Amino acid sequence: MHNGRTYIVTGAASGIGAETCRQLRAAGARVIGVDRHDTDNADELFLSDLSDPAAIDDLATRLPEGADGLANIAGLPPTAAPDLLLKVNLIGLRRLTERLVPKLADGASIVNLASLAGFGWADALDQVRGALALDFDGDIAGFCADNRLAEGGRSYFLSKEALIVWTMQNRWTWRERGIRMNAISPGPVDTPILPDFIETLGARAEEDMRVMDRPGRPVDIAPVVGFLLSTGSGWLRGANIAADGGMSSHLLTGMHGL
User: Which UniProt keywords apply (predicted)?
Assistant: First the structure.
């Protein structure tokens, strides 16, 4: 499925990104990793800071042409400063993707790692539109303060809500070249940043964990990334796959009295 193909994976040094690199390489792909930290998880590694527009532009220039897919997995947890979180999880992700699209192969797949935290995007459209209007030269800190994004991990939730919406909006943006974009929304996953979620969300996170049989693991999510990168997912465009152990179905049935 991946033999002879080349993929770019951000967040390659740990968690879901590291496991995705491992599985893709085991399936015969060449993996180009991007991270702030050194790692041997990829065949080739590019160090970069995805909160810095100049670093992103330099990275996009240095990355090779012809990749068959881009997996945007790098991200910060809700304990990060809200403006920094938006820069990495949304604004930087979008900038890197837009810079790389001209260099991707025709028929390439873009996979964005969203989150169950983005589940309520439809109830936050004003904030989502505001977040999607931001760029590095805008007043990101002011937007965060005006929208009280430091409270209760709201910055993280909004970053994922906006990412899901951006994915849907761009379902056909590069259709003439056959380039598609989809998202994955994991539930709680046992990675190095899981304690950050529990610390930020408190009782809310604990209740979610009681409902689930267990938190997810990177090995649960990486195969979904691999599927969306593969040619087998060619008819999926603008989709958001809930890889959450059934949590979104639990929320939906509860919301609708089912």
Answer: Oxidoreductase
